[in-house]
Design brief:
alpha+beta; three-stranded antiparallel sheet
Length: 87
């Protein structure tokens, strides 16, 4: 059986799987598995502050998510796959 696969470790793959309104529930479930109980997410919205440079070598994957916690707190989760010095 031949199929199409998406690599979630790439910027395109992660956004394709988790970065759409249709799959928002998957992202909430995924993040709630990673976050401590006091920061469980009730709802989220997508923020795209990313400005993709034309030079491939300096491109990096950044994906910001505005979250509302189960306790009503508002916070931002940033997902990124980039090597940053001193981070």
């Amino acid at each position: 059986m031949k199929g199409t696969f998406v690599n979630p470790y790439t910027d395109y793959g992660f956004k394709r799987i988790f970065g759409t309104e249709a799959n928002k529930n998957l992202l909430v479930d995924f993040l709630n598995q990673l976050l401590p109980l006091k920061h469980q997410i009730k709802d989220l919205s997508f923020i795209n502050p990313e400005q993709v440079p034309n030079i491939v070598e300096i491109r990096k994957a950044i994906f910001d998510i505005s979250c509302v916690g189960a306790n009503g707190d508002h916070f931002t989760v940033e997902m990124q796959k980039a090597k940053l010095r001193f981070f």
